[in-house]
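B., you asked whether I could sanity-check this one before it goes into the benchmark set. Here's the sequence:
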Amino acid sequence: MKKNERDALIFARFREKMPNPTTELQFGSIFQLLVAVMLSAQCTDKRVNQVTPALFKQYPDARSLAEAEADEVYEYIRSVSYPNAKAAHLVEMARELMTHHNGEVPATMEDLLTLPGVGRKTANVLLSVAFGQSAMAVDTHVFRVSHRLGIVTRSASTPLLVERQLMRIIPSADIPLAHHWLLLHGRYVCTARKPHCADCFLRDLCPSAIR
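And here's what the prediction gave me:
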């Protein structure tokens, strides 16, 4: 079987198994999604979802967060990873939104990357989830699963190179879904230390499967 045929089968099965995947982060607005994604860096979605209800109640929008101080925000997010840095970035991000974007989250990669604490992965999540654009966010799960399934080549040694290869391989309409397919598969099936190959619906197509 040729690689392009195998890739097509892989994504056809994802489409069948997970027709409507979405982020597991909980949020009530695009601004709150941005905050949640920033908090999720090197932290589990489960932990983020535990702290955001109180955080969003106190700071529901950019204006309220921009008026806060980092040490105040820290008290709400102290249980996530790197809370000091994230508290500072959140306040700076909100102030940047108020100063240059009327409190609204911008819908372009260029503008998102000007926000403090926002990198390419975070920006791609916003573009995909919030704005429905064909953007591929590559986190550790997407990076790992893409390589294990042989969708990307070994030369794709950085998240950016993986992103570029996936963008060439996956049909544009499927790209927002494919991020969630690969992420959720990596989170629950193709786990880092001990993949659950016996329970995987892609086992017969995976060059890395434990037989």
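One thing to flag: The CA atoms of residues 134 and 172 lie 6 Å apart. Otherwise nothing jumped out at me.
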